[in-house]
Task: structure prediction
Amino acid sequence: MRTTITLTNLDKVDIFSLGASIYELIRGSLLPESGCQFYNLKEGKLPLLPGHSLQFQNLLKLMMDPDPVKRSSARELLENPIFNRALRNA
Result:
């Protein structure tokens, strides 16, 4: 599957990069650059991250969706219930 980046979803490239950076930090290693794991990530199949809520992992999946049209925008991310809960607990 090949997706074209347009000016209307260019900001979502930054969301993908942010999600990938967070994912790398949590894993404690760089994302694979080739091989089976690379192709799984490219298709939006992220391995589970032990010790982290499914809600958080689903948020990362939204951020790293291979299709920029389906990927969350910054505004949509801020509306995610995970942030409402974090603000209530602060």
